[in-house]
Amino acid sequence: METLLFVLFGGTAAVGALAVVLSQNVVRMAFYLVISLGSTAGLFFMLGADFVGATQLLIYVGGTVVLLIFGVMLTASGPFITIKTAPSQVIIASVVGLAFFGVLFLTVLQVDWNANSARLESEYSASSLERIGYNEANVGNTARSLGAAFLGARFDEDLGRDRKELSSGYLLPFEIISVHLLVVLVGAAYLARAKRRVTRIEEE
Amino acid sequence: MNEIALEGYLGIGALLFVCGVLCMATKRNGIGVLMGVELVLNGANVNFVAFSKFGTLGLDGQIASMFVIVLAAAEAAVALAIALNFYNNHLTIDVDRANELKG
Questions:
Q1: CATH fold for domain B7-92
Q2: Is A53 part of any domain?
Q3: Contacts of B72 in chain A (CB under 8 A)
C-alpha cells in the first residue's frame, strides 16, 4: 500500500515537474505546477509530516500558485502566453539537466544511509537521539510539537528527559520571519501599486 | 513499513530540483522562471521532510521546511510585483529583453 501511494504521488510529482519544464504555454505550466506541488503534499503526508503537508496545500497550492496564476493573467497578452525556447538551447539544457540529475541520483544511491545514521547514533550519545516526545510511531500529529518549537519550547526533545539544559527552539527565527513577511508584503504592495503613467514607453 | 527508504524520496527531490533549475535556465517568460524557483524550493523541502523521518533530524527538518514554504511565499510576492512592474514599463514579460531595468 505504501509503495503504491509512493509511486502514485512521487510519479505525479515527477511528471508534473517534467511537464512544467517541457511545456511552452505558461498557463499550462501553472496547471502542471499545481499538480506537482499537490502530489508533493501527498508525499509529505506519507512521511508523517501532516502539518507541513497541510501548509503546503494551503500556502503553496492555495496561495503562491494562485499568485503566480494572477501574474500569468495580468501579463499574458497575446504573444507572451507561449514564448518559445530556441531548439539548440533545449538540446543543451536537456544534456546539462540529464547530467546534473545523473550526478545527484548517483550520489543518493552511492551513500549507505543506514550505516551513516548508525554511525551518527553511535557518535552522539543515544540519549540525544531517542525522540521521546516525537511520536514513536512517526505517524503524524506534529502540529502541537511544531507550534511549541516555533515558540521556543521543544516538547519533542525535552519531555521525559532528565537533563539540566533545554534544547534550543526557534523563537528568534520565527520572529525574524514574521517581520520579514510584513516588510515583504509592504514592499510588494509598494512595487505593484497602480501608477498613473502619462506616456507608455513603446518599444517596437 | 520501510520498503520505500530514504533513496526514493531523495530521488524525487533531486528530480524536482533539476526540473526547477532547468526551468529557471530555459524559460524566457518571467513567470516561468518564478515557477522554476518554486520547484527548486519544493525539491529541497522534500529532502528536509524525508531526512526528518528517516534520518536523525527529528522535528527540525519539518521546521526548516516550514520556513522554506513561508519564504517561498514572500519571494513569490516580491518577484511577482517586480515582474508586473517590468511588464508595465516594457510591455513584455520576456526576460531576454530585460537588459535595462531602470523603470
A1: Helix Hairpins (1.10.287)
A2: yes
A3: 60, 64
Tell me the residue range of the domain where A149 lies.
111-193
E-state strands within A24-109: none
Which residues from B are below 8 Å from A90, CB to CB? 26
Q: A149, A169 in Cβ contact below 8 A?
A: yes
The helix/strand/coil state of A198 is coil
Structurally, chain A folds into a number of domains equal to: 2
* Domain-located, residue A117: yes
Q: Determine the longest span between alpha carbons in chain A, in angstroms.
A: 73
Residues A64 and A17 in one domain: yes
Phi (first) and psi of residue A25, to 5 degrees:
-90, 125
pLDDT digits (tens, 9 = 90+) for B70-99: 999 999 999 999 888 888 877 777 777 777
Note whether A75 and A143 are same-domain residues: no
d(Cα A98, Cα A94) in Å, to the nearest integer?
6
| All cell numbers assigned to A13 | 510529482
- CA dist., res. A62 & res. A57, Å (int): 6
Bridge partners of A25, per DSSP, are A82
Place of cell 544534456: A95
Q: For residue A121, which amino acid is it?
A: E
> Are B86 and B30 spatial neighbours (Cβ–Cβ below 8 Å)?
yes
User: What confidence tens digit (pLDDT) does each residue in A124-159 have?
Assistant: 655 555 554 455 555 667 788 888 888 888 777 777
Instruction: Decide if A164 is inside a domain.
Output: yes
Q: Kindly give the parts of chain B with pLDDT less than 50.
A: 1-2, 103
- Return the pLDDT at A200: 55
Task: Sketch the domain layout of chain B as residue ranges.
Answer: 7-92
**Chain A window 111-170: which residues touch B at a Cβ cutoff of 8 Å?**
113, 117, 120-121, 124, 129, 131, 134, 138, 142, 145-146, 149-150, 154, 156-157, 170
Residue A34 grid coordinates? 499545481
